[in-house]
Design a protein that fits this description.
Uridine Diphospho-n-acetylenolpyruvylglucosamine Reductase, domain 2; globular; Uridine Diphospho-n-acetylenolpyruvylglucosamine Reductase, domain 3; six-stranded antiparallel sheet; 24% helix; 8 helices; Uridine Diphospho-n-acetylenolpyruvylglucosamine Reductase, domain 1; alpha+beta; binds flavin-adenine dinucleotide
């Protein structure tokens, strides 16, 4: 079985990431079929190799020393659709994990299927979307995901996990917390609405789309806003060489929020905030970073903040992962010292623990 796999050695990982950063994978294989994935996992067990599952590489920072085991790049393709009669125009669409996410959103929008239009322009693959419950502009994939088909890495068992079983929260699921590294996502099924209205909940979006806007109008508007913030990878340039937002927006309790607000007031600022579940408050990390002395475009070596979005740490050209981590460290320290909150990074750090 393993003989059918084309396993390469010492493959530089930087080109497989949106950061364009990362050393070599000791072994690398791209899988197009479930049986190839199984064979790759079996090979790793036989050879005692650690495994990293790579999608579109848009939410990773890979170490300069690379990854010492087997990187399995997911390229399982295919989209299928099932209309549910009498269910309020509900349509179930299943996309394989290796489908390009933004092309999948375009596919749905062209077919007048509502539910993921605000997630236009997010890089990466379908299989990456449940991992951190991808969200933007007032929409999250957890609103439309009905099930996630997974292959358990140690047993090879295939299971369909429901939305509830996937444990979705803000930028969280079981796949990046309690069950991290247990499953490989094979496909994701979304419930969309044929002829449904687009979601226009986010203020930036409300400001630029007209009443009665179509799904396509909203998709185009989201992509325009993203382009203005350097959040469209395909537009290229240093501002797009990132992993998107590097930090999550901190969610704090009311007491901590009041303290932060008081501090902001003393400094002559009005602190923006959004309500979060359980009476908590979400504070924009970009605001905290900018109010901690970091201007957009701030540089540390070849790493720097995007010139158009303070939340994106970027590779200004030839940056090493170590430089990005130095910048991250400086930001964490200043934000914590001033605002008493420790920001949590969003991208996955790859090749650090394994190398020890
Ligand atoms: C410019 C830019 C803008 C972005 N904007 C947003 C945004 O608005 N909202 C948002 O939520 N995110 C955003 N992101 C982050 C990122 O695009 C998403 O998290 C995306 O879903 C990651 O998918 P990926 O295929 O690239 O995953 P990768 O980066 O390849 O992997 C990320 C993690 O998921 C795991 N993984 C990937 N595929 C699978 C699979 N099939 N099975 C099991 N594990 C898997 C990996 O092992 C890794 O731990 C942005 C990134 C960039 C570069």
């Amino acid at each position: 079985m393993a003989a059918t796999l084309k396993i390469e050695e010492n493959v530089v990982l930087a080109p497989f990431t949106t950061f364009r950063i990362g050393g070599k994978a000791r072994y690398f294989v791209e899988v197009r079929k479930e049986k190839e994935l199984r064979a790759a996992l079996e090979h790793a067990v036989k050879e005692d190799l650690v495994v990293f599952i790579l999608g579109g590489g848009s939410n990773v920072l890979i170490s300069d020393s690379g990854f010492p085991g087997l990187v399995i790049r997911i390229n399982l393709r295919g989209i299928s659709r099932m209309d549910i009669p009498g269910e309020g125009n509900a349509v179930l669409v299943t996309a394989m994990a290796g489908e390009d996410w933004d092309e999948f959103v375009a596919w749905c929008v062209e077919r007048d299927l509502a539910g993921i239009e605000c997630l236009s322009g997010i890089p990466g693959l379908v299989g990456g979307t449940p991992i951190q419950n991808v969200g933007a502009y007032g929409q999250e994939v957890s609103e439309s995901i009905v099930s996630v088909r997974v292959l358990e890495r140690t047993t090879g068992e295939v299971r369909d996990l429901s939305r509830d079983e996937s444990g979705f929260e803000y930028r969280k699921s079981i796949f990046n917390t309690s069950q991290k590294d247990r499953f490989v996502v094979l496909s994701v099924t979304y419930e969309l609405k044929k002829g449904g209205a687009p979601k226009i909940a986010y203020k930036d979006l409300q400001n630029i789309v007209e009443d009665g806007a179509s799904l396509k109008d909203v998709r185009n508007a989201v992509r325009r806003i993203r382009a203005s913030k350097g959040m469209l990878v395909r537009q290229g340039g240093a501002d797009a060489r990132s992993a998107g937002s590097f930090f999550k927006n901190p969610v704090v309790d009311q007491e901590s929020f009041e303290e932060m607000k008081g501090k902001a007031g003393e400094l002559g600022h009005e602190m923006p905030s959004f309500p979060a579940p359980y009476g908590k408050v979400k504070v924009p990390a970009a605001w905290l970073i900018e109010r901690s002395g970091f201007e957009r475009g701030y540089r540390k070596g070849n790493a720097g903040l995007s010139t158009v979005h303070a939340l994106a740490l970027t590779n200004r050209g030839g940056a090493m992962a170590a430089e990005v981590l130095e910048l991250k460290k400086e930001i964490l320290a200043k934000v914590e010292a001033l605002w008493g909150v420790l920001l949590e990074p969003e991208p996955n750090l790859v090749g650090y623990e394994e190398a020890r």
